[in-house]
Specification:
Number of domains: 1
CATH class: Mainly Alpha
Number of strands: 5
CATH architecture: Alpha Horseshoe
Largest sheet: 5 strands, mixed
Strand order of the largest sheet: 1-2-3-5-4
Radius of gyration: 22 Å
Helix content: 55-70%
CATH superfamily: Tetratricopeptide repeat domain
Distance between the termini: 56 Å
Number of helices: 16
Structural class: alpha+beta
Order of helices and strands: HHEHEHEEEHHHHHHHHHHHH
Length: about 425
């Protein structure tokens, strides 16, 4: 995704290669728009903000200089779209296929697509500065010190739910018309229109990525590469395109996109960055939908390893991928192991303490994820004839879904939970 600010002129970079045109459909501009420092303080607090100045060297903003800070982190914004994330096992009576399980879950999570949208920051430390840690902002900030192909610097990604961004900064003049259009199209489920802009961003970013990758192999490395955020955002853009394809019902087209996103993110952000884990998880879900369970399990385990190394083995961020691992294990007919893994996943999910307390979207997603886990555990418990415990799980899941989705009889998730409860009650009464 292109940065949310105005595009900078990259002619000084592109002129190094006569094969690449320096002409862009979007007119370059030298206008700089300043984003109020108070916003960063509102979202992240004084402490983090003091170490998070932003420079406008490449699509960013220049609040760092205004704040009088001596240490600079070059930063730019992007949009990040959530995918399916969690696999749900669905209704006991339906005998769903793997693909149906995936897309029934998507129907629940995408009932409001604005829940899937976040505003992100991507920052590159040009020199060692104060350490960020995952404990500072465990659900928003991802930091990696891993060296990547394009930069030995630390790369930081930070995401803010769209509703928090809008509430705290409703008159954001820095957001480009293209990005506003993408967000509006996702919110109104005009996915084909959103793809047009995303694919244009991909074309621009890929051109610069290929050139920088070429230059990175030379002894005289390009000094501007740390400032060119579109290089780092290329993997995120590819991931976003994959998510939109899934939302539009074309999951078969997304597999190669998530594979490419994993590859590019690993090169630009570092192989241990949590952004890589996010794309691995979505790739695993699509492999699961294709009934390629062995490949899906290996992919989920790679995601688990990255998240565990970054956040720690017992961090709530692992609940998502553990749920998906359990679903793979269940499809491979090891029900007891699947149940054990699922129980551990929900214990981690219970420990979730969202730093975005002002985000109703984030809170609703957390609740829906919990409902999916509860239904999955109930589903597995029925399979091992633990009917009383399963009934309790289904009842709790139903209450959560009703609180988030409303007591709508026509919503698939609520209907499935009711059917599961009725099915379990019938067996339990026998």
């Amino acid at each position: 995704m292109s940065g949310l600010g105005d595009d900078d002129d990259y002619n000084d970079i592109l002129e190094e290669s006569p094969k690449l045109s320096t002409t862009s459909p979007r007119k370059a501009t030298t206008t700089r728009r300043s984003r109020p420092l108070i916003f960063m303080k509102t979202i992240f607090g004084e402490c983090l903000c003091e170490h998070f100045p932003v420079d406008n060297s490449c699509n960013g903003t220049s609040i760092g200089a205004r704040a009088g800070l001596s240490k600079t982190i070059f930063s730019s914004q992007y949009v990040e779209l959530r995918g399916i994330q969690f696999i749900g096992l669905g209704c006991l009576e339906d005998e769903l296929t793997a693909k149906e399980r995936v897309y029934d879950t998507l129907e629940q999570l995408s009932s409001r697509t604005d829940r899937l949208i976040s505003i992100g920051y991507i920052s590159v430390e040009p020199s060692p500065v104060s350490q960020f840690s995952s404990s500072t902002s465990p659900l928003l900030t991802s930091v990696t010190a891993s060296t990547s192909l394009l930069s030995p610097s630390k790369v930081v990604t930070t995401t803010v739910p769209l509703d928090v961004w809008n509430n705290n900064f409703p008159n954001d003049r820095t957001t480009s018309k293209v990005v506003k259009r993408i967000i509006a199209n996702i919110q109104t489920k005009k996915f084909s229109a959103a793809l047009v802009d995303l694919q244009y961003s991909y074309k621009e970013q890929k051109q610069k990525f290929d050139l920088m990758k070429k230059n990175a192999t030379k002894n005289d490395t390009n000094k501007k590469k740390k400032d060119c955020y579109e290089l780092y955002m290329l993997g995120i853009t590819i991931h976003n395109i994959g998510v939109v394809q899934v939302l539009d019902g074309h999951g078969d087209k997304s597999v190669h996109l998530f594979e490419e996103a994993v590859e590019v993110k690993s090169e630009t952000l570092g192989p241990g960055h949590p952004e890589v884990a996010i794309s691995l998880d979505e790739l695993g879900i699509q492999l699961f939908a294709l009934e390629r369970y062995d490949e899906a399990l290996i992919t989920f385990q790679k995601s688990q390893t990255i998240l565990a190394n970054f956040y720690g083995q017992g961090h709530p961020q692992l609940s998502m991928v553990l749920n998906n691992i359990a679903c793979c294990i269940f499809q491979m007919r090891n029900i007891q192991e699947a149940l054990s893994t699922m129980k551990y996943a929900i214990e981690l999910q219970k420990a979730t303490k969202s730093i975005t307390k002002d985000s109703k979207n984030e809170a609703d997603l957390d609740l829906l994820h919990r409902a999916i886990l509860l239904n999955n555990i109930g589903y597995l418990k029925v399979n091992v004839k633990q009917y009383e415990e399963a009934r309790s799980n289904f009842e709790e899941a139903l209450l959560i879904q009703q609180s988030v989705l409303g007591d709508a009889h026509n919503h698939r998730a609520i209907r499935d939970s009711r059917n599961n409860l009725e099915f379990t009650n019938a067996f339990h009464s026998d």
